[in-house]
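for the writeup, i need someone to sanity check this before i put it in the appendix. the sequnce is what the collaborator sent (i think, or maybe the updated version? ugh). structure was predicted straight from it, no edits. if anything looks off just tell me and ill rerun, i have time this weekend
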Amino acid sequence: MTQISRIPKWTDHNFDGMLIWFSEMSARGLLFHPDDDPSEIISIAKGTRVFSETEAAELRSTVAEMFELNGDEVYEAGAPIFRATLGQFDA
């Protein structure tokens, strides 16, 4: 049986594409910091890993490509999504 990935595809390899990707990750309840290894992220509520090994590999590949093509703009693209997810908005 083929399992459908919960990880959105990163199709627009630019700043706006990263904004969309981080936003979609947030909407799916899967947002994580790009410096963190996705295989080590644990759900506080369940005490289990958030991502399967396949998903973690997909995420590592996507984030590595983001950094390769966009450098530190990865952080700039993710920051407003993290703030919105945490309920912190710029004044």
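The chain has a mean pLDDT of 93. Residues 15-85 form one domain.
thx in advance!!
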